[in-house]
Amino acid sequence: MSRKRISAPGNARACVLDTLHEWESGTGYARDLLDVRVTDFRLKPEDRALARELFFGILRHLNFLDAIIGQLRSRGKLK
After folding, report:
1. Cα(71)–Cα(57) distance, rounded to whole angstroms?
2. In the chain, % of residues over pLDDT 70
3. Is the pLDDT confidence value at 4 over 60?
4. d(Cα 42, Cα 37) in Å, to the nearest integer?
5. Residues 6 or more apart whose Cβ sits within 8 Å of residue 3
6. Residues 18, 6: contact at Cβ < 8 Å?
7. Can you give the pLDDT at residue 60?
8. What is the pLDDT of residues 19-28, one digit of tens each?
9. CA-to-CA separations, 66 to 32, 47, 61, 62, 63, in angstroms, rounded
10. Are 52 and 21 in contact (CB under 8 A)?
11. How far, CA to CA in Å, does 72 sit from each of 36, 57, 64, 77?
């Protein structure tokens, strides 16, 4: 289930990005994927909490984020 692609052990943001890529590929449930990744990244408790908030916050607001990104792209502000 886990892709051992740890680019920055101990980095909550890198952990979230890696987990989002894995979630997007449809290889498992979000909570299970994140649990594996925070262990793989050897995150401290406070970094685990940050990773959970970032990851589930992104998933919770995914439609809104996609809409904003789409608008920026259509205006040529993003490539």
Report:
1. 20
2. 91
3. no
4. 8
5. 18, 22
6. yes
7. 98
8. 999 999 998 9
9. 24, 26, 9, 6, 5
10. no
11. 33, 21, 13, 5
Residue 58 phi/psi, 5-degree rounding, is -65, -45
For residue 53, give the amino acid letter.
E
- For residue 60, which amino acid is it? R
- Can you give the pLDDT at residue 1? 44
- Give the span between the Cα atoms of 39 and 75, in whole angstroms: 40
Can you tell me which residue has the tokens 């589930």?
56
Residue showing tokens 């051992």: 4
Render pLDDT for 36-70 as a digit per residue (tens, 0 to 9). 999 999 999 999 999 999 999 999 999 999 999 99
